[in-house]
Every structure is written in structure tokens, then in C-alpha cells.
Design a protein that fits this description.
The complex is a heterodimer of chains A (about 280) and B (about 325). Chain A has about 280 residues and is α/β, with parallel strands linked by helices. Chain A has a single domain, classed as Thiamin diphosphate (ThDP)-binding fold, Pyr/PP domains (Rossmann fold). In chain A, the strands form 2 sheets. In chain A, strands 1-2-3-7-6 form a 5-stranded parallel sheet, with helices on both faces. In chain A, strands 4-5 form a two-stranded antiparallel ribbon. In chain A, β6, α9 and β7 form a beta-alpha-beta unit. In chain A, α1 crosses α3, α3 runs parallel beside α4 and α5 runs parallel beside α6. The longest helix of chain A has 22 residues. Chain B is globular and about 65 Å long. Chain B is built from 13 helices and 12 strands. In chain B, α1 runs parallel beside α8 and α4 packs parallel to α6. Chain B has 2 domains: about 160 residues, Rossmann fold; about 130 residues, Rossmann fold (3-Layer(aba) Sandwich). Chain B starts with 14 loop residues before the first helix and ends with a helix. In chain B, the strands form 2 sheets. A 7-stranded mixed sheet of chain B has the order 2-1-3-4-6-5-10, sandwiched between helices. A 5-stranded mixed sheet of chain B has the order 7-9-8-11-12, with helices on both faces. By secondary structure, chain B is α/β, with parallel strands linked by helices. Classes of the chains: A alpha/beta (about 280), B alpha/beta (about 325).
């Protein structure tokens, strides 16, 4: 697929999001492992970025120097990243069947250079925002006009490196950098508020010199409004704290955080496919 | 007696100064070279680039993880980042980042670990890089360069810039004497024989190459002719030079300013034992941290002197002679 990305209307975006959830479900169930629930919570965020007219990319030329960057810092949402990239035309959808299989480039967590469109090796949390700053400095030195987006997890913000990057981003006035924080309120072992309190998150990012937006992370209108507002920010990096639901789209996954690192099997997978109208 | 004196080597300036000058040279020659500093540019001498090319010099502050990943991002944009700090801080603070964002990503980034070895002296063991070979050894895509004198340092900086892919370069505070003529040519992965000899081979890297040459001069006083090899590239390691040394001299001593566990010697032993096993001895740091002191006192106390190499050589020759009987 060449040229500018399609800009879909809200109804189409919703349909894409539903189909992406089916892809995520199917690929993790086939692999027998992976992080479907962490992928589900970020589906609308990635759909808005790739198909809502935010990101500028060329799937026929993944290394196009002027492309907007998308860095999946929460690397365990790899199934979502692969599903989105396939749908955007970076590679054939059949590749999704090879997730976590021997002799396949579709690694359990993304590895730079192995699949087109994968901008960074992630999976150890906390690194993507820093890599994004590197791309911002690169844009300046190369005198190229693009933006850099980084998807962060909420639990990920417990990593000290996120705050090293937060400090450096405002120091370097990285106004072409937008982070989106998937705030689904859960980390691997339980609710974030119980395990390692992050609040007050808005104040934390503001105090680090960022322009902070909050959004409903499953509402396209709201997400697109904030993503577009972030584009016009000058001098400061921006972050959209997207309030989301972990496991969004499948009722019994939404209700049980222990699905974090688990694929759905057998009857569960069937039930989930039914709820998602996977056909 | 200073290192290299017995061997008649000419004195030089601190190796880090040579590094800074060579870095400035590659920055002048290649506008894709950028320098990322962990707020130690004055110590590592990376700051020489800051003064000349401020737009290509970034002080990322005291944050090695961030430093490393920003470098990886710049590499992805087509730049050749030199990520420079103390090797102890870079490798120990940002190992995970170097592993994912550089090694696993095959990023065209150059990690320069300054203040390698114990000869930074008085700042003490917290600042010393005595495990860098082992740690970089744990990342399979890295080329690992350990210059031994001003000429090889200058080469190594240029070679790092020219090589496409991850490179780790050890720099040091200590002044290493001149071993090479200015026009000496080097090649990544090709060890250099710096002294011919048939009785045994001493393989060193970094400062210990000069020390080995001193030891060889002492041995020559006793009628023993030692071959001395500079293993300036620890990965890819020159197996051929090791095997040839084993076959032609029948005994090997290794010498390194690094822990023996996971160091150069253990890798040489792995290759020699597979291809052509000969008696070996290893000079390096035993399982210990050192202490704050004058570098010369440290080298003596922790057994990294020409005398230690001579003793190891005599031992290995005794074993060799015993086997010949």
C-alpha cells in the first residue's frame, strides 16, 4: 500500500478495531501464549494513529526517512503491533499465523529489523521513549519533517528510564514527540494503585515539562481530538493519558486481570470470538 | 620502572586523550558521526567534539539508559552515534538497553567504555571497568576492540566508525606507550604479532601488550624468546593466530587488565583447547575487586606486571619441557 494512510470515519475505525481484536485473539490463541489483554486495551489508540489520519507512513517503503515514527514501548502488546502493521499493508496478514513459531520473524516481543514497520526492539520495559527522543534529534539533524509517537504502558512508568526520558524530552524541547499512555490501571500482578501507585500522573508529567491531555482511550472522537491537539503543541513534548480497560472487548477478560500474560484457549477463545463477532 | 621502559617503548599521553582526538577526526571526516555524552565528556575527552561540532554533540546527562536508547534512535535515523561514558557506568547501568536497543537491534552504534581496567587508580573500584570484556562478551553481535597504544587507538576509533554494526571500544585513563609506527595497518579480527619468538607466546591486550613486551625483554635476558601477540580485537577473535602460536611455540601465557573469569584468556583457552591444546597460564585479576591507589601500586599488588608475566612464562615453559620428556 503506497502513499498516505487511509483516513477512516469513526464507524470504519470501530470496525477496524473489532477486526484487530479478532486478529490478536486468533494469533495468541494459535501461539498458545502472549498478551491479548494488554493488546486489547491499546487497540483504539493504535487504530486512531494508523487509520485515523494521524500517522504519515508508507507501507511499501517502511524505511521512508520522512515517515512518522511509531514506537511500541510496551513490547508485550506485540500482537497488536503486528496486527496493525499487517492491516496497514506492511506485510501479508498470513504472517500473523507465525507468531512465536520456530524460524519466524514474528517474535514474541518486537525486534527491530525483523519485521517491516517495527521501529525498535522492546519487551524490556521503559526504553521506547528514549529511543523516540533519538528519532526527534535525528529529525533535527537530518532536517526532516516528521513526528514521533511512543506508546507507553502504565506499569511501564514504574521504570526509572521513563522519567530520565521525560526529563530529557522537555530539556530538548521535543515538540514533535507525543507519548500515549495506555492507562488500563493494571500491571501483571494486580491493580496499579495497589502494587505501585502512579498517581498523580497528570501532575507528574506536567512537572516534567510536558503538555498533558487526558482522553477516553476507547473513544475515537476523543482520541483523535487530543492527538490532533498534540500536533499543534510548540516547544513542549506532549502526552495523552488514555484511560482504558484492560482486556477491552471481551467481558470475562475485562473482569480478570490475571489474563495479563495468558492466551485464551478452547472454550474461552470460542466465547471471546463470539463476543467480538469474529465470524 | 614504567610500563614499556624495559622493552624500549616511547612514552605517550593518556589513552583517553588520543581517543578524544581520534573522535574529533572521525567527526570531521564523517558528518554522520554524532557524540552522546553521559556528562563525563571532560574525563572521556569526548568534549573535544563538543567544542568543534556542538550541533552533533549531545550531553544526555547522568542517565546511561536514556543515553543508550537515544543513541539507538539516532542510529536508526542513519547516524553513527558514539555513546561515551565510563565503561562501568555504561555497561552496568545500561546493560539491558545496550542489549536490546543496540546488540539485538544490530544498531550501527559505537559504545565507548572509558576508564577500563584498574589503572584509573585513585578513584577506586566503583569507577573501574574490570568486567567489560565479559559483559560485552554476553552480547553476540558486538565487535569488541581493545587498543594497546596511541596508534591502535586511533585506528580503533576509525574502524569503529567504518564498521557497520555494534562496536564496543575500551578506552583508558592510563598513558600507554607507543608500540606501533604511525603507518601500521590493522584489521578488525586480525591479531598483530609485535614480537617474534619460538619458545612461548604471550598474548595480551590493552596495557598488557606493553607489559608483555617488557616481560619478553626480561625473558630474552635469560635466553628465552617469547612471541608477543596484541589481541586488539576480542571479538571476532583471531583463532588462526592462536592456533599458529600454539603449534609453533607450544605454550601460551595470556595477560589482560580484566577479571580472569570471562576475560580474554578464557576465550583464548577455549579456542586453543579445541584446536591445539598446549600448556597455558593466565595473568589477570583473580576473583577480586581492587582498591583506591596509585596505578603502579595497584598493578604490583594485583599481579599485572612484567614480573608476573615472567613468572607465568617460566611456569608454562616448565610444563612444556616436562611434556617433551
Amino acid at each position: 500500500m503506497a502513499g498516505n494512510p487511509n483516513i477512516a470515519d469513526t464507524k470504519t475505525l470501530k470496525e477496524i478495531a473489532r477486526a484487530l481484536r479478532c486478529d490478536i485473539l486468533d494469533m495468541t490463541t494459535r501461539a498458545g501464549s502472549g498478551h491479548p489483554s494488554s493488546s486489547f486495551s491499546s487497540v483504539e489508540i493504535c487504530t486512531a494513529l494508523f487509520f485515523g489520519g494521524i500517522l504519515n507512513y508508507r507501507s511499501d517503503k517502511p524505511d521512508w526517512p520522512e515517515r512518522d515514527r511509531f514506537i511500541m514501548s510496551k513490547g508485550h502488546a506485540a500482537p497488536l503491533l503486528y496486527a496493525v502493521l499487517a492491516r496497514a499493508g506492511f506485510f501479508d496478514k498470513s504472517e500473523l499465523n507465525r507468531l512465536r513459531q520456530i524460524d519466524s520473524p514474528v517474535q514474541g516481543h518486537p525486534i527491530q529489523g525483523m519485521m517491516p514497520g517495527v521501529e525498535a526492539t522492546t519487551g524490556s520495559l521503559g526504553q521506547g521513549l528514549s529511543t523516540g527522543i533519538g528519532h526527534v534529534l535525528g529529525a533535527r539533524l537530518n532536517r526532516l519533517d516528521y513526528r514521533v509517537y511512543v506508546l507507553l504502558g502504565d506499569g511501564e512508568c514504574e521504570e526509572g528510564q521513563v522519567w530520565e526520558a521525560a526529563m530529557a524530552a522537555s530539556h530538548f524541547k521535543t515538540d514533535i514527540l507525543t507519548a500515549v499512555l495506555d492507562y488500563n490501571k493494571y500491571q501483571e500482578t494486580g491493580p496499579i494503585a495497589r502494587e505501585m501507585a502512579l498517581e498523580p500522573l497528570v501532575k507528574k508529567w506536567e512537572s516534567f515539562g510536558w503538555e498533558v491531555f487526558e482522553a477516553n482511550g476507547h473513544d475515537f472522537k476523543d482520541l483523535l481530538k487530543k492527538l490532533n491537539a498534540a500536533k499543534s503543541e510548540k516547544q513542549k513534548p506532549s502526552i495523552i493519558i488514555a484511560h482504558t480497560v484492560k482486556g477491552k472487548g471481551v467481558s470475562f477478560v475485562e473482569a480478570d486481570y490475571t489474563f495479563h500474560g495468558r492466551a485464551l484457549k478452547g472454550e474461552q477463545a470460542k466465547q471471546a470470538r463470539k463476543e467480538l463477532l469474529c465470524g | 620502572m614504567r610500563v614499556g621502559e624495559k622493552a624500549g617503548l616511547k612514552e605517550s599521553r593518556p589513552l583517553r586523550d588520543i581517543f578524544g582526538e581520534a573522535l574529533l577526526e572521525v567527526a570531521q571526516q564523517n558528518e554522520k558521526v554524532v557524540v552522546l555524552d553521559g556528562d563525563l565528556g571532560n574525563s572521556t575527552k569526548a568534549e573535544l567534539v563538543r567544542n568543534k561540532f556542538p550541533e552533533r554533540f549531545f550531553n544526555i546527562g547522568i542517565a546511561e539508559s536514556n543515553l543508550t536508547c537515544i543513541g539507538s534512535g539516532l542510529a536508526a535515523c542513519g547516524f553513527i552515534p558514539f555513546i561515551v561514558s565510563f565503561s562501568s557506568f555504561l555497561l552496568c547501568n545500561a546493560y539491558d538497553q545496550i542489549r536490546l536497543a543496540i546488540a539485538m537491534s544490530n544498531a550501527n552504534a559505537k559504545v565507548v567504555g572509558s576508564h577500563g581496567g584498574i589503572t584509573l587508580g585513585k578513584d577506586g573500584p566503583t569507577q573501574m571497568g574490570i568486567e567489560d570484556f565479559a559483559l560485552v562478551g554476553g552480547m553476540p553481535t558486538f565487535v569488541l576492540l581493545v587498543p594497546s597504544d596511541p596508534v591502535s587507538m586511533r585506528w580503533a576509533v576509525h574502524a569503529a566508525a567504518d564498521h557497520v554494526g555494534p562496536v564496543f571500544l575500551r578506552s583508558s585513563r592510563v598513558a600507554m606507550p607507543f608500540i606501533y609506527q604511525k603507518d601500521t595497518s590493522f584489521e578488525i579480527g586480525k591479531a598483530r604479532t609485535v614480537r617474534e619468538g619460538e619458545d612461548l607466546t604471550i598474548i595480551g591486550c590493552g596495557l598488557m601488550v606493553s607489559t608483555a613486551l617488557d616481560a619478553a625483554a626480561h625473558l630474552a635476558d635469560r635466553g628465552i624468546e617469547a612471541r608477543v601477540i596484541d589481541m586488539h580485537t576480542l571479538r571476532p577473535m583471531d583463532s588462526e593466530a592462536i592456533v599458529r602460536a600454539a603449534k609453533e611455540t607450544g605454550a601460551i601465557v595470556t595477560a589482560e587488565e580484566h577479571l580472569l573469569t570471562g576475560g580474554m584468556g578464557s576465550n583464548i583457552a577455549r579456542i586453543a583447547s579445541r584446536e591445539y591444546a598446549v600448556p597455558m597460564r593466565f595473568v589477570g585479576l583473580a576473583d577480586t575487586y581492587t582498591e583506591s591507589a596509585d596505578p603502579d601500586d595497584l598493578l604490583v599488588k594485583y599481579h599485572l606486571t612484567a614480573h608476573d608475566i615472567v613468572q607465568a612464562s617460566l611456569q608454562v615453559l616448565e610444563v612444556k619441557a616436562g611434556r617433551a620428556k
